[in-house]
């Protein structure tokens, strides 16, 4: 469930304590919505929004607080943007997980889209993926997908022939 954070979180980080009822908390830092366009000014934020919505939107999903970091002009002044100084958020989108008052996981930008990186942030979701991933048909499809990605992406980027990568594939 996507939630609006308490107002005091918008001016300084909360002092999470073990006694806090929000001892296991997920925060999502997004670029603010541009009033002229009606969308977030950051293309990476727009790219992960559907994934974030899929992971958190709905009553049956884990709760997460969405915090908007300001306009593009405000974001470009790191010394004056308290999300960058107080929260140590260097890029948006950023997903943080706090457990027992301590930060235990952080995903930045495209890491949010990688299922293999979601484990520390959403252990329940990734355990469901692991169960699905253990089926033989899924392993075959995933293996072929990885192989195809490596052939299409790796070779052209490095300008090398497939023979040079025969030990990798």
TrEMBL record:
Pfam families, per database record: TXD17-like_Trx
Record GO cellular component, one term: cytosol
Listed InterPro entries: Thioredoxin-like_sf (IPR036249), TXNDC17-like (IPR045108), TXNDC17_dom (IPR010357)
GO terms of molecular function: protein-disulfide reductase [NAD(P)H] activity
Ranges of residues in domain Thioredoxin: 25-114
Family: Belongs to the thioredoxin family.
Name this polypeptide is given: Thioredoxin domain-containing protein
Organism: Serendipita indica (strain DSM 11827) (Root endophyte fungus)
């Amino acid at each position: 469930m996507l939630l609006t954070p308490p107002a005091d979180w918008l001016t300084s980080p909360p002092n999470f304590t073990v006694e806090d009822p929000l001892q296991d908390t997920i925060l999502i830092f997004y670029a603010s919505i541009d009033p002229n366009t009606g969308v977030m000014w950051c293309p990476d934020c727009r790219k992960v929004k559907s994934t974030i919505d899929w992971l958190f939107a709905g009553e049956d999903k884990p709760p997460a607080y969405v915090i908007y970091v300001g306009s593009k002009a405000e974001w470009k002044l790191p010394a004056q943007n308290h999300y960058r100084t107080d929260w140590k958020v260097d890029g948006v989108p950023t997903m943080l997980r706090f457990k027992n008052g301590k930060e235990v996981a952080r995903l930045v930008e495209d890491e949010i889209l990688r299922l293999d990186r979601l484990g520390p942030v959403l252990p329940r979701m990734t355990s469901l993926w692991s169960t699905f991933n253990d089926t033989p048909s899924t392993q075959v499809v995933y293996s072929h997908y990885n192989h195809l990605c490596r052939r299409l992406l790796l070779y052209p980027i490095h300008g090398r022939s497939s023979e040079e990568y025969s030990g990798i594939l």
